[in-house]
Please model this.
Amino acid sequence: ARVHHYKWDVEYMFWSPDCEERVVMGINGQFPGPTIRAHVGDIIHVDLTNKLGTEGVVIHWHGIRQLNTPWADGTASISQCPINPGQTFAYRFVVDKVGTYFYHGHYGMQRSAGLYGSLIVELPKGQNEPFHYDGEFNLLLSDWWHQSVHEQEVGLNSKPMRWIGEPQTLLINGRGQYNCSLMPNFGNSSSTQCKFKGNEQCAPQLLSVVPNKTYRVRLASTTALASLNIAIGNHKMIVVEADGNYVQPFEVENLDIYSGESYSVLINTNQNPNQNYWISIGVRGRQPKTPPALSLLHYKGVSAKELPTNSPPITPVWNDYNHSKSFTKKIFSLMGSPTPPNRFDRQLVFLNTQNKIDGHIKWSINNISFVFPPTPFLGSVKFGLKHAFDQKSPPEDYPRDYDIMNQAPNPNTTTGSGVYKIEYNTTVDIILQNANALNANTSEIHPWHLHGHDFWVLGYGEGKFTKEDEAKFNLKNPPLRNTAVIFPYGWTALRFVADNPGAWAFHCHIEPHLHMGMGVVLSLAVDRVKGIPSDALSCGLTAKMFLKKKYLP
Ligand code: C2O
Ligand code: CU
Model:
């Protein structure tokens, strides 16, 4: 196995992701951060230096399970302390599984500030993927606001809350166009034609192809908020990978991707080679106020400046949930993939609600809105620091008479920092139950992401989950994933084998939702975790423990 050694500086810098200059969080002067490419079994070693000046930072390696290195998961308050300005933390971990992944900040709302990049793991040399392709592209998708994340954060915490609103621009590999469009007057924009010299930070990245070849397009979404849909004019896509797991190939004309998810699709460049084709990415699940992101599938031989003859594909209507569900329900694991145990040892039912605390708007799970404690759970659980977090475990279910279809009679909730203690090597089912939000007739999409494990998605359903629904679980070929969505007023059933000791976050991947409390922490056989670097725990009560003395001599 190779060791890939990187030295990264995280810093604020001026950048024009959508042709308007703002401040972004970059790495080594780049936005998005550098792409990591490695082979299965390689070691990634990143010496991360915080050059932000006034705030801490951590980086989470989304989709990497961190087997035997739970302290390298990069979640502030859970797996480590934020790295202080000027200090360096060494992330060292094995990439044990092939697939399309990414990394991002996991402290406050730093992901929305632009702290992200791609992480691609290839098969060991000599091994072949179960599908053929001649070339590949990598598209990291994100959404972008002109307001700074600090302003957004203050807005979310304020009373009355100032919601961040819809993004100004969608970015493909950190590039989008705000004040102009590649295709003027398309979507809900009334902008003029973009003129690029080609070296602008916001110039679109074209996908240049030759005719009659197969290309793999890797897609990953690190959006703060937006659910997206991608389509390529005239070209069908064959879905082959989801979250680093092979799926039974199936063909689509467009594909939904939620924050935290990744896919690989294959396209065949078998269309008329004398023209270019639009790639269009639009917003789903929320009323779109953001124009679609555009790029070109550019057939070499045609000028890259030549615009397609047809107009860009139109994103399905934002609230056409049947379209979303029908896509999601087509995803099955590739034959020969691991199948889940037939039964669970423990079932956790998580009711997702929007609530109020003293007039502030929050999100809760089983009526507890999560707050991040100052001491990382990995240390406080390991060393039994009883004052570091709520000792009472949070509820495993919600009152059965709760009406998920309507507004709660009393939307008030409380904050909490308790953990779900999970026994080693047990099979755990999690039922995510959606409900009505604060407003009448409103229920939102939430993409839930688990750290440290993949889970099988056993099924989706409408309304309230009941015991009888268990009989309908797909135990034959459920997809393995690390992120799964719950649809409005519906439920999603997940199963995983708790075989990776550590303190793991499980949360909605919509950044403001997590910020408003939409997450839980699982503490899993932390007593088995050995060799935590003290650097990871040099804050809160663990720091005090290391120092022992109250006053220094
Ligand atoms: Cu990609 Cu906990 O997040
Ligand atoms: Cu959410």
The chain has three domains: 3-127, 136-328, 346-542. Residues 3-127 form a domain with the Immunoglobulin-like fold (CATH 2.60.40.420). Residues 446, 508, 510, 513, 518 surround copper (II) ion (ligand 2) (CB under 6 Å). The helical segments are 149-157, 321-328, 377-382, 511-515, 540-547.
